[in-house]
Every structure is written in C-alpha cells, then in structure tokens.
Amino acid sequence: MADLLGSILSSMEKPPTVGDQESRRKAREQQARLKKMQEEEKRKKAEFRKKMEKEVNDFIQDSALQKKKYEPMGKIERSILHDVAEVAGLTSFSFGEDEESRYVMLFKKEFAPSDEELEAYRRGEEWDVAKAEERRKLKEQAALEEEATSRTQKRPPSPSSNYRDKYSHLIGTSAAKDAAHTLEANRAYGCVPVANKRDTRSIEEAMNEIRAKKRLKKGEEDVGAGSSGL
Length: 230
Fold this sequence. Notes:
The chain has 230 residues and is mostly helical. It contains 9 helices and 3 strands; from the N terminus they run ααβαββαααααα. A 3-stranded antiparallel beta sheet has the order 1-3-2, covered by helices on one side. This is Sperm-associated antigen 7 homolog. One of its GO terms (molecular function) is nucleic acid binding.
C-alpha cells in the first residue's frame, strides 16, 4: 500500500520552477500589451471614421465643390474613407504609383469623372478642362484625316484616258481596213451597201428621167419600124 501511494505521489506534476514562472509572467504581459494595442487601433479607426464622416458630410453640403482630394494615407485609412464615401453615395478612387504616395479623391455622383479625366490622374497630371477639350478636337481632326486618307487609298484608280482614245491609232486603222475590205467584197460579189442604194433624187426628178427614157425608147422603136418598111 505504501509503495502504491509513493508511486502515485511521484507521478504527480512537480511544482513549477522559478524559470517556468517567469515565462508565464512574460506571456501574460505580452497578451495584455497585444490586447491594449488592438483596443487602441480599434479606437483610432473609430475616430478616423468619425472624422471622415464629418468631412464627407461637409463636402456633400458644399454645393460649390464637385470633387475633393485627400493627402496620401495608409491602406487602412483609404479603406475606411472608401467605405464612408460609398455609404454617403459618392464615387471614390485611389491614385498614386506606390503605397506611400497613394491618395483618395471623392466625386459627387452628378460630377463623376470621365475616363479621360481618370487617365490624367493616373498619370499624375492635374485635370484641365480647356486642355482636355483641345486634345479632344485634335483627336477628332486626326480621326477625320485618317478616315479621308483611308477612303482615298481604297478608291480604285480611274484610267487617265479612255481605252478607245488611248488606242485610237490602232482601232481607227483597223476599222478603216475592215471597212475597205468589206467594200471590196461587196463590189466583187455585186453587193451594194444600203447606204449606196439610197436614192437622193426628188420624186419629180425621178419621174422626168423615166419619161425621158420612155420617149427615147419610143423614138428608137419608130426609127426601127421605118427602116424595116424601107
């Protein structure tokens, strides 16, 4: 029995040493500091949000303002500001090349920025309405000139002269040869072109010629009859 009790007592956890107590104390202190930091961060976020809500509300109430630009701020602050702007019905964007230079801009819905304006901010430029209008006109003019050039290039080139005019010395010579050849063939076979058959005399002239031929023929017959009577 004594041996059994002794083994049980020996197997129980030994009291912590001085080193173990120090480690536990440091762990408790670290947890307390972490909790305090979390509470402090939470408090700062709440204060920052409250501040942004007031500024956003003042911005909305000021009818003379269309947009509002903030100084560069951290990622958490930007996230809070974007959330406040969305709840208030505003449009918000972040600009800046690196994390340290990124900032937030707020826009009222009725003055939402165009794509061209956003591109200017992304390039780190200030938005100038007059310069933007000038660039827009230049782009339109360039587009019209490009379209006109494209149409000119697509248009088929017209011949500098008519085909028959260009080869008239060949076509004319060939046509003349063909006409002469046809005329000779007509003459050889007793064919006369319709144009050559056309009688250009008047009806009276034709009748007079017929009467004259008849008188001549009758005279020749009378002379022949007299000669046979002799």
